[in-house]
């Protein structure tokens, strides 16, 4: 059944119990993501230790794909440097869009591979990643956050 | 009226027969028969419309209003014939009152720019309601920005109802225009437009009704309504996309400047000055959507051959069936419970995001709309990011609604 390929157990689990969900005090950077098509909204907050993502949490309201993707992302990038995190994004992006990407090197994130059969849902899965890129780019994220937090 | 005359000798309404008129309803989606419950976004075309457009494309295409050759005359006759169908359909007074546009959105923008913009000044007010589609909000915001006028929004209640008294209380001396939906696309509410238009008129306020969701479900008589402008889209009325109608009272249209310049809208052009064409051509600059208009005319003809009373009764029964079937599902909440509703149901299911619901339903061949329905203020009012919306046409069946309900149950199990 194809639906079970999209909504794998890992996805359903992270949707029901999103990890790293909630506010983050004294964040060094934050960014908002919004998908006007479906109303998905999320706020991502980071704590940086030099170049390393020391902590990351998210809040918001979204569909199962977007919530699970954000939850999986926070697990995957915690402890990584900016460059490493962006490299994971590259690979997730390929997983979501390229037929030949297996996701074998992506661990739990590979559960998102079913999404590429549902083009209308790719944006849901990538929203959090675009938000992360924004939070990590000094102009939009860390810089802006300094003035608002 | 023409339509009731046609209806009286039409066969009694029979869903199975009517469904055969719509080729797409034979489609299968993901291996299952398509249950198309997204008619509020766009309705499907009957064969009569497809064939009318096809015949025009194959045999009669030429530009309109500008050739003496046979095809141009045929195309003009077909295009203007479609306008005559619309005159009858809305019970307008004359062809001068029927302007072909791209759709409801363009119709509202035309009125905003050509009627409102030259007339409004700082301190004037445009009154709308809280349940409008963005197409009946943003053009007014734009014209308010341009003129310094103020947009005033009449409230809705928790049932999605618009109370005439609440709107009337806002019809102050500075209100120049009142614009509202005839039927809400997000909630299904049928607004008390007869009374609202009468109240506005009594105060000298010009009125526009957004009929995008009304024309597929209700008989519309612009003279009985007494509104100044009425807008609708062909594609929600079983006609092609890219064609729609602005009805305007002749005296008003006459008093308005054209909103686009070009060919067809002029009588005479010289560099010293230009004389505009007569109505409605003054508002139809450039080569129009000829095939779309012909498709719209064919859709209206098709509808007039149906037992429309029977069709509307069937839609009411579909609404009742859907409301009942969905209400029985634990955790499901119907959004919008106005006393008069067109046949659509907006709802949310606890623990299941509308977007996921849409995907699960598609998997079982059921097409619905999920999202904010281009009515973000409505979503905000109900504090929801989105809803799922099943919207019915007379060709839908009880069985399709049962499949919708079963699909919702399936989604609850999956995400529960
Ligand atoms: C109530 C209402 N008004 C306006 C519109 C805009 O119609 P169109 O996109 O055809 O211009 C719609 C269509 O979604 C609608 O439902």
Can you describe this structure?
The complex is a heterodimer of chains A (149) and B (416). Chain A is α+β, with helices and mostly antiparallel strands. Chain A has a single domain, classed as Sufe protein. Chain: A, CATH 3.90.1010. Chain A is 44% helix and 18% strand. Chain A contains six helices and three strands, in the order ααβββαααα. Chain A has helices at residues 2-6, 9-16, 64-77, 82-97, 122-136, 142-148; strands spanning 29-35, 40-49, 52-61. In chain A, strands 1-2-3 form a three-stranded antiparallel beta sheet. In chain A, strand 2 (40-49) and strand 3 form a beta hairpin. In chain A, helix 2 packs across helix 3 (64-77). The longest helix of chain A has 16 residues, at 82-97. The radius of gyration of chain A is 14 Å and the shape is globular. The termini of chain A are far apart. Chain B is an alpha/beta fold and 416 residues long. Chain B has two domains: 5-33 and 307-415, Alpha-Beta Complex (Aspartate Aminotransferase, domain 1), CATH 3.90.1150.10; 50-304, Type I PLP-dependent aspartate aminotransferase-like (Major domain) (Aspartate Aminotransferase, domain 2, 3-Layer(aba) Sandwich), CATH 3.40.640. Chain B has a seven-stranded mixed beta sheet with strand order 4-10-9-8-7-5-6, with helices on both faces. Chain B has a four-stranded antiparallel beta sheet with strand order 13-14-17-16, with helices on one face. Chain B is globular. In chain B, 50% of the residues are buried. Residues 1-7 of chain B have low confidence and may be disordered. The interface between A and B is medium-sized, with 23 and 16 residues. The site of pyridoxal-5'-phosphate has 13 residues of chain B, from helix 5. Pyridoxal-5'-phosphate is lined by residues 103-105, 133, 135-136, 181, 185, 210, 212-213, 233, 374 of chain B.
Features:
heterodimer; A: 149 residues; alpha+beta; Sufe protein. Chain: A; three-stranded antiparallel β-sheet; 6 helices; 3 strands; 18% strand; disordered C terminus; B: 416 residues; alpha/beta; Aspartate Aminotransferase, domain 1; Aspartate Aminotransferase, domain 2; four-stranded antiparallel β-sheet; 15 helices; disordered N terminus; binds pyridoxal-5'-phosphate
């Amino acid at each position: 059944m194809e639906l079970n390929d999209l909504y794998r157990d890992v996805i359903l689990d992270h949707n029901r119990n999103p990890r790293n969900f909630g506010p983050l005090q004294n964040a060094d950077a934050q960014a908002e993501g919004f998908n006007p098509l479906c109303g998905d909204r999320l706020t991502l907050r980071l704590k940086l230790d030099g170049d390393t993502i020391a902590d990351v949490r998210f809040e918001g309201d979204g569909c199962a794909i977007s919530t699970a993707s954000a939850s999986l992302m926070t697990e995957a990038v915690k402890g990584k440097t900016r460059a490493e995190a962006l490299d994971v994004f590259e690979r997730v992006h390929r997983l979501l869009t390229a037929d030949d990407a297996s996701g074998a090197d992506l661990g739990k994130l590979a559960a998102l591979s079913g999404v590429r059969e549902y083009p209308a849902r790719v944006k849901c899965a990538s929203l959090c990643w675009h938000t992360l890129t924004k939070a990590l780019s000094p102009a939009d994220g860390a810089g802006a956050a300094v003035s608002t937090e | 009226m023409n339509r009731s005359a046609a209806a009286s000798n039409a066969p009694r309404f029979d869903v199975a027969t009517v469904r055969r008129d719509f080729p797409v309803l034979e489609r299968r989606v993901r291996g299952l028969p398509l249950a198309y419950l997204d008619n509020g976004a766009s309705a499907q075309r009957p064969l009569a419309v497809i064939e009318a457009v096809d015949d025009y494309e194959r045999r009669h295409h030429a530009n309109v209003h500008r050739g003496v050759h046979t095809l141009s005359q045929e195309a003009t006759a077909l295009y203007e014939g479609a306008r005559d169908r619309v005159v009858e359909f809305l019970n307008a007074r004359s062809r001068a009152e029927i302007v072909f546009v791209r759709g409801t959105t363009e119709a509202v923008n035309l009125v905003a720019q050509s009627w409102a913009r030259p007339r409004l000044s700082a301190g004037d007010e445009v009154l709308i309601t809280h349940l409008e589609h963005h197409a009946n909000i943003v053009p007014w915001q734009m014209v308010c920005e341009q003129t310094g006028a103020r947009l005033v929004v009449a409230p809705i209640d928790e049932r999605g109802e618009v109370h005439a008294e609440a709107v009337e209380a806002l019809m102050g001396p500075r209100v120049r225009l009142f614009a509202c939906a005839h039927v809400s696309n997000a909630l299904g509410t049928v607004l008390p437009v007869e009374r609202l238009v009468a109240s506005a008129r009594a105060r000298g306020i010009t009125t526009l009704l957004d009929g995008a969701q009304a024309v597929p479900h209700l008989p519309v008589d612009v003279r009985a309504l007494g509104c100044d402008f009425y807008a609708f889209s062909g594609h929600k009325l079983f006609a092609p996309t890219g064609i729609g109608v602005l009805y305007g009272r002749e005296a008003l249209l006459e008093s308005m400047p054209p909103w686009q310049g070009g060919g067809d809208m002029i009588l005479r052009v010289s560099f010293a000055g230009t004389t505009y064409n007569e109505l409605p051509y003054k508002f139809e600059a450039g080569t129009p959507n000829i095939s779309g208009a012909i498709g719209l005319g064919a859709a209206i003809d098709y509808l007039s051959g149906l037992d429309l009373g029977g069709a509307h009764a069937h839609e009411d029964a579909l609404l009742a069936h859907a409301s009942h079937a969905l209400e029985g599902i634990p955790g499901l909440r119907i959004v919008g419970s106005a006393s008069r509703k067109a046949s659509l149901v907006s709802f949310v299911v606890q623990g299941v995001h509308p977007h996921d619901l849409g995907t699960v339903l598609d998997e079982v061949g059921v097409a619905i709309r999920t999202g904010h329905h281009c009515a973000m203020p409505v979503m905000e009012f109900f504090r929801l990011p989105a809803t799922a919306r099943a919207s019915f046409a007379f060709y839908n069946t009880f069985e399709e609604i049962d499949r919708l309900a079963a699909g919702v149950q399936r989604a609850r199990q999956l995400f529960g």
